[in-house]
Amino acid sequence: MRDGLETPRITVIGTGHLGACQAAGLAEMGFEVLGVDNDA
Q: N or C: which end of the chain has fewer CB within 10 A?
């Protein structure tokens, strides 16, 4: 992202259709993203 700053970390809870799209979009924007879902 910017010089001297850490990359923001975001957790998306629920990786169904909307959560997966949101996580992918945020990752494409440069955020470090962790997707979590309880449906294993």
A: C
CA-based angle 22:28:4, to the nearest 5? 115
Output DSSP code: residue 17: H
Q: Model pTM?
A: 0.75
- How many structural domains does the chain have? 1
Residue type, 29: M
Structural domain boundaries enclosing 9: 1-40
CA angle 23, 31, 5 (to 5 degrees): 165
Between the alpha carbon of residue 33 and those of residues 29, 30, 39, 40, the distances in Å are: 10, 9, 19, 19
